Amino acid sequence: MDKTISGDIQYDDLRGWLALAERMGEVKTVRGASWEEDIGLAAEAVLREENGPCVVFDDIPGCPKGFRLLMNVFAGKRRSMTFGFPEHLNKWELSEAYWRAYVKEPRIIPHRIVEDGPVFENIMMGEDIDVLKFPAPKWHEKDGGRYIGTGTYSITRDPEENWLNAGAYRAMVNDRKSVGLRLATGHHGYIHREKYFARGEPMPVVMVLGGDPLDFFYGGMEAPYGVFEIDIVGGLRGRPAKLVRGKVTGLPFPAGAEIVLEGYVTPDNLMTEGPFGEWTGHYAGGKRQTPVIDIRAIYHRNDPILLGVPPMGGGADEMARYRAVLRSATIRQNVANAGVPGVERVWCHEIGGARLLHGVSIKQRYPGHATQAGHIAAQCGASAYAVKYVIVVDEDVDVTNLEHLLWAMLTRSDPKESIQFIEKSWDSQADPRLPHDKRAAGDITHSVAVIDACKPFHWRDKFPPTNVPSAEVLRRAKERFGWLLTGGKPG
Ligand SMILES: Cc1cc2nc3c(=O)[nH]c(=O)nc-3n(C[C@H](O)[C@H](O)[C@H](O)COP(=O)(O)O)c2cc1C
Questions:
Q1: Over the stretch 160-170, which tens digit does the pLDDT of each residue have?
Q2: pTM of the full predicted structure?
Q3: Of 48, 352, 411, 419, which residue has the fewest beta carbons closer than 10 angstroms?
Q4: Closest ligand 1 atom to the C-alpha of 229?
C-alpha cells in the first residue's frame, strides 16, 4: 500500500462528479423508465454489484423534460475518484488512503456564504410549489410511497447553541407541498427538533436532494456533536464550500445543489410515513406518524438531477460499500483517539450495512487490551448506533475478509469465556429483532456482543501455530501449480 497517496477531489457538486464518471466510461443512460416500478427494478439489478454502472434516468414519464435521477455513485473505479484517489485501489486500500489523507489529521474549512448560485436558476414558491414534479421512485415493492429523500441530507441550526448540522434522513412524499422527515432519537437533527419544539417554535430546515456525493456521505456519518459536516468536507477538499442562504429561513445550502426544499417542521403537522425497505433488509420501522416539512420554497437547477441511494437490504449494497470505507476509518481513529494503542485494522462489514458487525485487529500489548479495544470500538461515536457484534482478533487476521474473520473467531474463541455483553446499547428502529413492547415503550436499545478472538494474552506464545499459508507459500503454490486450475500447462 502506497502510504504517500494524497487526495485530490476534482469536483464540487453532483454535475462535476457526473462529468468525471462519464469520462471514465462508467455511466449509462436509461430513457422512459417509470418511477412507479422500473427505477426500483433497475436498482435491484445494479446496486448490489461491486462494479455496476452509474445510471442516469431521463425522460421519466410524468416528470417535466430534463428532470433526471442518478443512482449508483459508489461502485467501479469511480469509488476512488469520488475521494480523489487513483483508480486502482481495492476497498481496504481505499479506506486506508482515506484514513491517511482525511481522518488521521482532520481539517475543517468553514463554508463561505455567496450571494447567488445555479441552485436559484428555478424557484417555486406559493401555489407553484410541487414536489411531485421530481422523479421520486417507489423503490421497493412493499414501500408505503414514493421516497424522494434517499440520497439526501437536511440542514438545521441548533436554536440554543447556533451550530449547523447536516444529517441524512429519509423523506417520503406526502403531497405537493410536504414530505416526511423521519429523525431517529439521538441523531443531531432530532436533538435540534426537540429543542425547537420545547421552545414552542417550528424547526426551519432545508433538505438537499442531489448534492455533492461527499456532502451526502457525511450527512450519513456520525460527525462529532457541534460540527457542521459541510465544513468537514471543505477540509477534505482543501477549499471552502460555497453556500447560499434560503430566501425563507436564511439557512445555508450549497450553491451548486441540484434541488433544495425549504420549510418548517411543527409537532402537529404529521403524515403516515412508511413502511420503507430499510438497510437491515426488513420493514422493521413500519408505518409511523411522522412530522413533515411544510415546504415554503423549492429551488432547483435547470434539468435537475435527483440523487437516489436506496438501501437494498439482505447483503452488501452501494450504501454499505461507501459506509464501510468511511466508518471503518472513522472507528479506527475514534479508538486511537480514546487512547487505545496497537489498532491495526477495522472493518465494518457490508453484510451488516457497515453498522452491525465490525472486525478489529490489534497487536496485543498487555492483558485486557482486546477487551478495551472491543468495548471502545463498540461504543465510540462512529459505532454505537445499531452495532451488534464486534470481533477483536490478532494482527495476522485480515478483518476485511469475512471468511478469514469468522475463521479466527471460530478457532480462537471459547464461547463462554470470550464473549462479553454490553446491555442497553443504542439501537436503530430499523432493527427487526427489537421486540414490539420495547419499541412501543420507546426503549430502542439492545445488547452488543464483544467477542475476544485473540490468542489469550497470557499464553499467546504457546498458542498452536497456524497452517494457513504465508504469502510466500501462496505465491510459490500459484507459480508452480496454478495451471491445475486454469487449464494451462505445467510451469
Ligand atoms: C440514505 C440514508 C438514510 C438514512 N435515513 C435516516 C433516517 O430516516 N432517520 C435517521 O435518523 N437517520 C437516518 N440515517 C442515518 C443518519 O443519517 C446517520 O446516523 C447520521 O450520522 C445522523 O446524523 P447526525 O450525525 O447529524 O446525527 C440515514 C442514513 C443514510 C445514509
A1: 999 999 999 99
A2: 0.96
A3: 411
A4: 26
